[in-house]
Hints:
alpha/beta, five-stranded parallel sheet, 222 residues
Amino acid sequence: MENSVQELIKIVIVEDNKYMREGWTTILDFAPDLLVLKAFESCEEAFDSDEISKANIVLMDIELPGMSGIEGVKYLQKEYPELIIIMASVFDDDKNVFDALCAGAVGYLMKKVSPEELKKAIRDAYEGGSPMTPNIARKVIKTFHQPSSNDEGEQLKERELEILAELAKGKSYAAIGEEIYLSVDGVRYHIRNIYRKLQVNSRSEAVSKGIARRLINPDLSD
């Protein structure tokens, strides 16, 4: 069955390197389920465009002229909270990684990612996953062993704890819904409450806090 326009995953690219921008656009546009609405060289250009409001996913660099990618994520989280943001960078230092994830990015890729890995990351993020290249994932996992802070915040309900545990396994929203018999919208509703109560903006930060506070088991295997 052919994909309809409604089924396409619509993408906006923000990357100042012309060749990288054109390369990503070509790679993604060749996939039958992916559509690059437009590619921009700065956050300012992208945010002045109407394309942002039509997108499902933004693929964004960190080091950009003018507004940085980190600041760009913060802006998008405020203005378009449902927008899915994946960072792609040559930087893999702790500060850039965690600043991006804490600002609200759902994934973090190195720019040397292969075409197939890039397409898979876009699809995974759209389905509720948090795509990361392996070295970035290892950095995030290390935060699971950090000591708990004293600010316990609002307590999670039993259903929210159940969903947080499924998030820790890396499952998509759809897979979580099937596991606990909830619609995807129902899962999203509970996840928004989890983020609010834990005072976080991303899956990785929610899982990290959940483990640090002993809300979920640090053994994330099924």
